[in-house]
Amino acid sequence: MALSGLQIYKLLPRTNCKECGYPTCLAFAMKLAAKQAELAACPYVSEEAKAQLAAAAAPPIRLVTVKGPGHKVEVGNETILFRHEKTFYHKAGLFVRVHDTMPAGELRAAVQAAMGFGVDYVGMDLFLDGIAVEVASGDAGTFASAVQTVQEATDRPLILIAEAPAVMEAGVKAAEGATPLLYAATSDNWETMAALAKKAQAPLAVRTPPLPGGGWGGWSERPGRDDGANQGQRRAGHGAGPRRARSHRHAGHVDATTSPGP
Amino acid sequence: MPVTVEIPIEKWRGKVREVTLGATPDDGGTRSHTVTVGGETTLPFLHFEGEIPNSPRIAIEIASRRPDDWSPLLMEAWGDVVDDPATWAKAAEEAGADLILLQLSLTKDGDTPTTAADARAATRAVLEAVGMPILVFGPGQVDADNELLVAVAEEAAGERIVLGLCEEKNYRTIVAAALAHGHLVNSCTPMDVNLSKQLVILISDMGLPLERILMDPTTAGLGYGIEYGYSVMERLRIAALQGDKMTQLPMLVTPGYEAWRQKEAKVGEGVPDAWGDWHERAVLWETMTATALVESGADILVMRHPETVKRVEAFIEKLMGK
Question: How confident is the model at residue A244 (pLDDT cuts 50, 70, 90)?
Fold first, then answer.
């Protein structure tokens, strides 16, 4: 949150030494609040005040990075709601979802096809950002080998989709050397997932039921995701959410969705 | 460890005006029902913050004769109904239209200009074919628009149809016709917040009540500047909610026209392989154009392909929480 001039003033030495070029500390604080001066102009500001002011100046939405050896996706750091107010800094990442039950050859081919896809659009090189590997087998070993297959087929970032911590741990291990997004912590598994993400220094997605009062009822209708138990059903068409509906239209198990965070 | 999230609520002072299209026999028309749009007291689909009493509605665009310049995919989707506006209107009704927009063609056959009598006949035929409210738009050339729309206004007297386009260069004639015969107008301006407001002021100064004006801020197709149209619509809606009366009107946009004139939708050959299946791409182009506009506050979407209409309707239902 941006601080007001008075809040900033309280963090300054309040000696009115004028060395910053302004007649008083308050005047300098007002300029800082209006982003018309730099804090570095004050030679006496404490380290603690510097840290507080830097934290307050950071964009309200944090920057999250998902990284593969050859490409990274950065999202967040936005400061506005409307495009006309200023600008948006990071576009949404686009990931293609695959399942670990696909035979290795098919999986490799699907990943290469998706990652090889590109369109030159009036000078802009449009492509997909990475692959989301979802556990459908319920088995840690199968998931790990699928992650490895995908990792070998592309140098772009991965999203690992699993809710059983043991499965996720195997996936994280297989993705060593990259910084995947772990999807997802829920009210049931959050402690282990958080520990896993912390250890791997990887970002973690958190999934919850929708907040009350939102208009979009779609997410709450989604089937439970207990890693495998009802995967067969889900792919057979039990999914009610829009993402599911979409995946059924595509041949095979590859579906072009946006990054799977509601 | 229960926590409570304080959801911030914006307290808007303003409200988008409700505009009703069509008149039933009780109100001097012949429509089986009316369609009301507008009435929002918050930004699109923020149901937790304010009221969104009316869903965005879809008008399917039909033409007074077989169009020359429509994509073959559209011609294939509609088939032979395009030879007769009444049959086409019925087919559009079956395809899920909430409203029919009759686009008058400039000529009857590529040569002979469409006459006032032709325009009356087409309007009459569509009014008799369907019970829903209709919109009638002129060919887009000032002289032709003036001649044809004045005749159409008289033919459809009392039906509360929407006359368009009502632009800066011809608004006097169109508004006079709407005033004389109890219709609405579609106030259309180039993509600019101030121009939108200015034309509404001019129209309103002629005595047409604000309840009979729709605002068409002009948009663009996906990939061709839609973000500018999107921002103009957002700004108009924010101004409306902040209390600016002359922007408090429901917005009509034309994603069908915009999407289908772009190469990605229109052309199947001589494009990169990476563009994929033509039919799916074209339908997606219109769908994505329309859904972006729904998100930016559109109240009426004028669309062309029956499959697109289904997809956008499903999208709107979800956003309305139905």
Answer: very low
CB count within 10 Å of CB B155 equals: 20
Which residues 232-261 on chain B approach chain A with CB closer than 8 angstroms? 234-235, 238
Query: H helices of A12-97, where?
Result: 25-33, 47-57
Q: How confident is the prediction for chain B on average, in pLDDT?
A: 96
Other C-beta atoms closer than 10 Å to the C-beta of B28 total 12
Structure-block tokens of residue A216: 């979009």
pLDDT of residue A246 exceeding 60, the answer is no
CA A148 to chain CA centroid, Å, is: 21
Upstream peptide bond of A184 is cis (omega within 30 degrees of 0): yes
Among B47, B275, B318, beta carbon nearest to A119: B275
* Confidence at A256, pLDDT banded by 50, 70, 90: very low
Structure tokens at B322: 């139905």
Stretch among A233-242, B110-119, B149-158, B169-178 having the lowest mean pLDDT: A233-242
How many CA atoms lie less than 13 Å away from A80 in the CB half-sphere?
Answer: 9
Q: Tell me the per-residue pLDDT of A42-94, one tens digit each, with 9 for 90 and over.
A: 999 888 888 888 887 788 889 999 999 999 999 999 988 999 998 999 999 99
Q: Is A215 in Cβ contact with B319 (below 8 Å)?
A: yes
Chain A residues in contact with B51 by the CB 8 A cut-off are none
* Closest Cβ–Cβ partner in B5, B52, B275 for A211: B5
CA B191 to chain centre: 15
* Predicted TM-score (pTM) of this structure: 0.85
In B83-176, the DSSP E strands lie at: 99-103, 134-137, 162-166
User: How large is the angle between the packed helices B142-155 and B116-129, nearest 10 degrees?
Assistant: 50
